[in-house]
Amino acid sequence: MSQGTVITLGTLLRQLPVSTRVRPTEALYLLLGQHDWMSNEQARALIAHSRNVDLDWDAYLVDEDQAKPCGIYVFGPGGQAHRAFELSQ
Fold first, then answer.
1. Does 47 map to a domain?
2. Domain tally for the chain?
3. Rounded to a whole number, what is the largest CA-CA distance in the chain?
4. Is 89 contained in some domain?
5. Fewer CB within 10 A of the end CB, N or C, for the chain?
6. Is residue 88 situated within a structural domain?
7. CA dihedral of 10, 14, 18, 19, whole degrees rounded to 10
8. Domain of 51?
9. Pairing state between β 71-75 and 81-88
10. DSSP secondary structure string for all residues of 10-75
11. What is the pLDDT of residues 18-69, one digit of tens each?
12. CB crowding 38-61: b at 16 or more within 10 Å, else e
């Protein structure tokens, strides 16, 4: 997976290295009700049981080398990208 490649949120979470931890941003916290660091598998399970977030959402990864803050971004209404998860490696 290359940085900035648009794939589904579920696929992106599945392809993250096992050592990577994710934490929902404040916006996604409102939809998921969780704001703790978790594994990519825990995040996938949480989303799979959510009625507000979908694993099929288009998403992409940004690392520290780019102008945006590191994280997983999803597309919202109007096509704008919003950071959904912070990353800790």
1. yes
2. 1
3. 34
4. no
5. C
6. no
7. -40
8. 9-83
9. antiparallel
10. HHHHHHS-TT-EEEE-HHHHHHHS--S-EEHHHHHHHHHT-SS--TTSEEEEE-TTSSSPSEEEEE
11. 899 999 999 888 888 888 999 999 999 999 998 888 999 999 999 876 677 8
12. bebeebbebbeeeeebebeeebbb
Asked if 45 and 34 count as a contact pair (C-beta separation under 8 A), the reply is no
Torsion of CA 9, 65, 2, 71, to 10 degrees: -10
> For the whole model, what pTM was predicted?
0.86
From the CB of residue 33, how many other CB atoms can be counted at a distance below 10 Å? 11
Q: Are 74 and 58 in contact (CB under 8 A)?
A: yes
21-24 sheet: strands from edge to edge: 7-8, 58-62, 71-75, 81-88, 21-24, 38-39
33 found inside a domain: yes
Q: Bridge-partner residues for 39, per DSSP?
A: 21
What's the confidence (pLDDT) of residue 3?
62
